[in-house]
Design goal:
With 491 residues, this protein is of the alpha+beta class. Among the domains are: 126 residues, Dipeptide-binding Protein, domain 1 (Alpha-Beta Complex); 205 residues, Dipeptide-binding Protein, Domain 3 (Dipeptide-binding Protein, domain 3), CATH 3.10.105.10. The chain contains 13 helices and 17 strands.
């Protein structure tokens, strides 16, 4: 074959490829919850990261779909022999979407802001070990720790640790400006968010030109939207009973993956009667996890007995500590001084696992004498009254942050668990870098909260994604709450 023929064939192939991509430059992505705002550094809702993580905002490090932590805005880093100093070398030529340069000053601003005394960062504890952040030169930043922290690179990959600019952070809640492969375009609240490809992206550019995130909370409407092909992808599809129908339809592909979502029946440890360990243990024994998984999730979900992901190699199966035993639950209530049970309020946010699971749990609790007044709340209301206001007795939510057992060391967290011994254990863990020692500490931590029955641990949330056939690059698993579109294509 002549070089000319080869060249012509290659050119023809390129033209066909270009034409193919041009057919589908846009993607309609649906999700169940609408984010309350778009600033991941000042909000706890997973829906924020679902839209902006990696797409719009980036950190020094980042999670990949397999859970690994890789370089992000930091090209590389050096760690001192004593583990106290991390020197990060930034990529050159990185700009924010407004055209301003991203440099070491922005890194310092972002981390100092996140760890400040008046910080509103939902995961402020991620930065507790940072003693100082200093600028060495425009592309080099030095982080000095108060004690070694074997989780620092992991912590910096969270959405709460993304790099922002002082010039634009004030508008991030409604107009986020990051360094990612996509730029924010507009937000029609109650309906959708549009993003568009960043033409000046420092890394590998996105294939998609534009994408729209649509918010469809009702399972019936979710099914209708997919069947009508009004949406191309639904991440976290809320009606798992429909999955066999999609699997049988050649128009669709179904991906079922793992998440970091520990789904729990949270108990308000700061309010009677849940400040009584015996009551919490009674609640735990009144719950039939498998009935909830089967009834609310149609079998999707892995039972858990503590706040830790079963696919993590350090997980300990402690489900036997809180096995389904309604007779034991009634005995414990009597021992706790509630022989006739009690009445409490259970607040439920919109996700199907909460609304459907809540009805099943209410019936299980009723069988041992605990009456629940169910209050269905929209996401913003749940965040304001339940999460921030601590105004609840019971609630159901899935914690999708990666390896977040450290939240139990924060007595001000919404379930208000205050155990100095656990807090000391977490401090020791943060200062420990030896892998074997970290495993032992993490397993001890899992046992403490399981034996204290802080919450009733239900199941690890699975994430079903329904997508049009031919779409590639979607995450099957969610090691963090993200709908990362940076490598998605639809030829």
């Amino acid at each position: 074959m002549s070089k000319l023929t080869t060249f012509l064939l290659a050119g023809t192939t390129a033209l066909f490829a270009t034409a193919a991509f041009a057919q589908h430059p846009h993607l309609n992505v649906a999700m169940q919850l609408e984010p309350p705002n778009l600033d991941p550094t000042a909000g706890a809702a997973q829906a924020i990261d679902s839209v902006v993580y990696s797409n719009i905002f980036e950190g020094l490090t980042r999670f990949m779909s397999d859970g690994s932590v890789v370089p992000g805005l930091a090209e590389s880093w050096d760690i001192s022999e004593d583990g106290l100093v991390y020197t990060f070398h930034l990529h050159s030529g990185v700009t924010f979407h407004d055209g301003t340069t991203m440099d070491a000053e922005d890194v310092k601003f972002s981390l100092d802001r996140a760890r400040a005394e008046d910080s509103t960062n939902a995961q402020k504890g991620l930065f507790a070990s940072i003693a100082d952040v200093s600028v060495v030169d425009p592309l080099t930043v030095r982080i000095t720790l108060s004690a070694p922290n074997g989780s620092l690179l992991f912590n910096l990959a969270w959405g709460d640790a993304v790099i922002v600019a002082p010039e634009s952070i004030g508008e991030a809640a409604t107009h986020p400006v990051g360094t990612g492969a996509f730029m924010f375009q507009d937000w029609v609240q109650g309906d959708h968010i549009d993003i568009t490809r960043n033409p000046n992206y420092w890394g590998t550019p996105a294939v998609l030109e534009t994408a729209t995130f649509r918010f469809i909370s009702d399972p019936t409407a979710a099914f209708a939207a997919l069947m009508a092909e009004d949406v191309d992808v639904f991440v976290g599809y809320p009606a798992p009973e429909n999955l066999p129908q999609f699997e049988a339809d050649p128009r669709f592909q179904v991906l079922v993956g793992n998440t970091e979502g520990e789904t729990i029946l949270a108990m308000n440890n700061g309010r009677e009667p849940f400040n009584n360990r015996l009551v919490r243990e009674a609640v735990a024994h009144a719950i039939d996890r498998q009935a909830i998984i089967d009834g609310a999730m149609y079998g999707l979900g892995t039972p858990i007995g503590t706040h830790f992901a079963p696919h993590n190699p350090d997980y300990v199966d402690l489900t036997a500590l809180s096995n389904y035993d309604p007779e034991r639950a009634r005995q414990l209530l009597t021992e706790a001084g509630y022989p006739d049970g009690f009445t409490t309020v259970m607040t439920l946010p919109p996700p199907s696992y909460a609304r459907r699971g809540g009805e099943i749990i209410a019936a299980q609790l009723r069988a041992v004498g605990i009456q629940t007044e169910i209050q269905n709340q929209e996401w913003a209301q749940w965040l304001e009254t339940t999460f921030r206001g601590h105004d609840f007795g019971l609630t159901i939510v899935s914690h999708t942050e990666p390896m977040d057992i450290g939240i139990y060391a924060n007595p001000d967290y919404y379930f208000q668990y205050d155990n100095p011994a656990f807090q000391a254990l977490m401090s020791t863990l943060n200062e420990t870098t030896d892998p074997a020692q970290r495993t032992a500490l993490l397993q001890q931590a899992q046992r403490i909260i399981a034996e204290d029955y802080v919450n009733a641990y239900l199941f690890e949330l699975a994430v079903p994604t329904v997508a049009r056939t031919g779409i590639e690059g979607l995450w099957r698993n969610q090691p963090t709450a993200a709908i990362d579109l940076t490598a998605v294509s639809w030829p």
